[in-house]
Amino acid sequence: MNIRSLPACLRPCALAVLAVSAGQMLHAQGLPDTPGLAPGRAAPALQDTVVSATRTEQPLSDLVADLSIIERETIERSGLTGVADLLARLPGVEMARSGGIGGASSVFLRAADSRHTAVFIDGVRVDSQATGGAQWELIPLAQIDRIEVLRGPAAAVYGSDAIGGVIQLFTRKGEGPAKPYAGLGLGSLGSRMFDTGISGSAGQDGAFGYALGLARDSSAGFDAKTGVAHNPDRDDYRSTSGHARLGWRIDDRHHVDATLLANRMDAGYDEHSAAPPVDDRSLGRLRTAGLTWAAQWSRAYGTRLSVTDALSRYASAPTPYLAETRLRGYLWQNDYRRGAHRFSAALERREDALQNGPIDRSRAQDALALGYGLSTGRHTVQLNLRHDGDSDFGSSSTGSAAYGYALGAHWRATASLGSAFRAPTLYQRFSAYGLPTLQPESSRNIELGLRYGQGRSSFSLLAYRNRLRNLIAFAEAGPCASSYGCYANETRAQYQGLTLAGALPLRGWQLHGALDLQDPRDPDSGRQLARRARRHATLGADTRIADWSVGAEMQASGRRFDNAANTKVLGGYALLNLYASTRIARDCTLLARIDNLADKDYQLARSYATPGRTLYVGVKWAAQ
Questions:
Q1: Within a 10 A sphere around the Cβ of 109, how many other Cβ atoms?
Q2: CA–CA distance from 363 to each of 310, 329, 335, 397 (Å)?
Q3: DSSP bridge pairs for 467
Q4: Could you count the other beta carbons within 10 Å of the beta carbon of residue 357?
Q5: For residue 424, is the peptide bond before it cis, meaning its omega torsion is within 30 degrees of 0?
Q6: In angstroms, rounded to a whole number, what is the distance separating the alpha carbons of residues 165 and 142?
Q7: Coil, strand, or helix at residue 85?
Q8: Which residues pair with 252 in a beta bridge?
Q9: Nearest-5° angle of CA 289, CA 366, CA 362?
Q10: Residue 4's pLDDT is what?
Q11: Which are the contacts of 491, defined by CB distance < 8 A and separation ≥ 6?
């Protein structure tokens, strides 16, 4: 790799990444990524388990997949209120947003469109049948305890949407003695954050687990628009969220779990130029609910039965607009283990409904998914096959095969193949711009990886190529009702790239970082896909000074384009952030953070501003 060929803003990151075998390991050789890992805190142990790779619990040491984990400690230390902002600090992830924290947000996993990532909260799938993909601005980070990010197609496990990968978010679980907590934070731009809750268990041997939480975030904001006629006011933001999680261990074999999460958001944005100026408001609502019964019928055989429901709602004022998506899911998962072999079979049903003006439509997908895993000696194998039948336009079959080989005690080579699809949204089919005859988008992915992990040192190198066909895009006027243009299956896309990541302890510091070299483009026109850079990187260092944990991180991105024609340029940028924390009492921790220290002027979406230098100070009390 020629460092001189990189944009100037990326060269320091690239040099450091190569020098220290860069970035916190996010590839799953049992060494998942935890950005900004505090000194003295060990990486997750190999016996820890994850669920995102195969939809059932399995040890990290058995994974071949490309996986990251973000724990609660990292979330609290971030001082952030946006899930998308936190994810953008992981290798292989980019973020775009229109304005401030409440603006429409996109998350690009391995450069795939935001709608090409399947998103779950406590196992409840969230999606918008209007815009496509999760409405990231509606997910309250204050309620999230853990995040798992799986990169690479996973439709053979999860069905529609998982072309770029899967992101699972989990709220707190209740276990052990009661542990109340409360936090208060103040920051620049009139930001205020408060959260409180309690978790624990009760009854004989802690059979009843509970976790409850409430949070309120608000900001006076800043003028979100630039360079166009608009209302020059400060676009404020406020969000009120809560979650509840109740569990009952009936006996050693049966467990019931119920979850509920809700959030209401009210954010200002500037869409119209009018006299007098209009205070445009974005009004969002998110609610997820799930009920799961897990049964372990024998040491070898277990089942999980779940019913889930999600509501995503977007409205605007004073200009009236409403789009509401309802998604209901049913899953019966069966897992059988025999020695080193793992077998799985699942029946799943998904029901989507959209209300958007004159659109009042629904559809259903029924699926059968089969899986096989083997972990023995130096070899790890994972095979999956799934068939989805759609009530409107037929069926789609997807499959994946992954293999890992241990080259030694600390090295592993991996290879995988996978196919995926995404069904068109109800808006793309039945709006004035839609066509009922649209076909699903489909992809085929291949990737190769090399990973190393020992203690606090890790290294990974992963190359991938994901080719999409039947990509749905807004095209010229055609057979739809609108004279402005129609959605059509007339585009292709190719996501290919190289991710280098690693971590290294050095003289009391823990260095971590990652570099992504990618080529997201339309292979027919050769143009770069909108709002995705060809190069982006992260670099960080943490240490302890006296009673303080301190650290610094850099995020950098190359040039991007705001449109498919590549005529509107978004310049590259590099941001430097500093953070520090210390325990000020037995149960109290003080956190301070400065983001964008150099007050860099940059854009994530054309004609939308981003915050300059910001300061956040918070206090967290948690009973020990």
A1: 26
A2: 15, 12, 29, 18
A3: 444, 494
A4: 12
A5: no
A6: 23
A7: helix
A8: none
A9: 65
A10: 43
A11: 471, 472, 473, 475, 522, 524
Q: Measure the CA–CA gap between 193 and 218, rounded to whole angstroms.
A: 7
Spatial contact of 213 and 172, defined as CB atoms under 8 Å apart: yes
Q: How many residues does the chain have?
A: 624
604 touches 610 (CB < 8 A): yes
Which tokens belong to 464? Answer: 């991938």
Distance between CA atoms of 409 and 195, rounded to whole angstroms?
44
pLDDT tens digits for 562-611? 999 999 999 999 999 999 999 999 899 999 999 999 999 999 999 899 99
Residue type present at position 433: Y
Question: What would the two tokens of residue 152 be?
Answer: 């690479």
How far, rounded to the nearest angstrom, does the alpha carbon of residue 183 sit from its chain's CA centroid?
A: 24
Which residue shows structure tokens 């193949």? 417
What would the pLDDT profile of 8-56 be if each residue is shown by its tens digit? 443 434 433 333 333 332 333 333 333 333 333 334 444 477 888 888 8
How far does Cα 487 stand from its chain's mean position?
26
Number of neighbouring beta carbons within 10 Å of residue 227: 10
How far are the Cα atoms of 264, 521, 523 from residue 486, in angstroms, in the given order? 32, 22, 21
Model confidence pLDDT, tens digit, residues 312-332: 999 999 889 999 999 999 999
